[in-house]
Amino acid sequence: MSSNTVRRGRKFVVSSVSSDAHMWNLVFLQLLLEEHGGEVRNLGACVPDELIIEECRAERPDVLVISTVNGHGHLDGLRLIRKIRQEPDLEGIRVVIGGKLGVRGAENIAFVRELVEGGFDAVFESEGGLQDFQEFLAGLQPAARPALSGVGGHTGVAAAAGASGISELSSMGAAA
Fold first, then answer.
1. Are 70 and 42 in contact (CB under 8 A)?
2. Mean predicted confidence (pLDDT) in 102-119
3. Bridge partners of 40?
């Protein structure tokens, strides 16, 4: 399988953070995922945390993809992932975030570690392009979709991201 291919039948929920009104990035992600065989539920822009959580319960996606353009992704994303990780029935869901994580330009990479430690399975800073994001998607294992019962554990950052540690994740740069 090429590194830019999503396995057929993968299910994704795509959303922005609650303060981000940009839609073009979400449409792009939806088209990218669908082009490679993914099934996508696009929640749109300015989605409240609680609605994202409800949709993840209803859809049971393989991956929740959070995209941010407004520069507040590290703040809103950290709040969102903490809420998701507190929900026992969503414990095993993969969640990634990417895009413009802050307003520091190249220094936005500093937010990666905090977001990973906060509970994201992978973080993709916008400066790096899409290759790392596509490689992450291609490496998804088939049995990872959380069961309706909520049984299962968080797979961990390194395993889910296909990286050997946080230092490698901090070099990832694809816009999710």
1. no
2. 89
3. 12
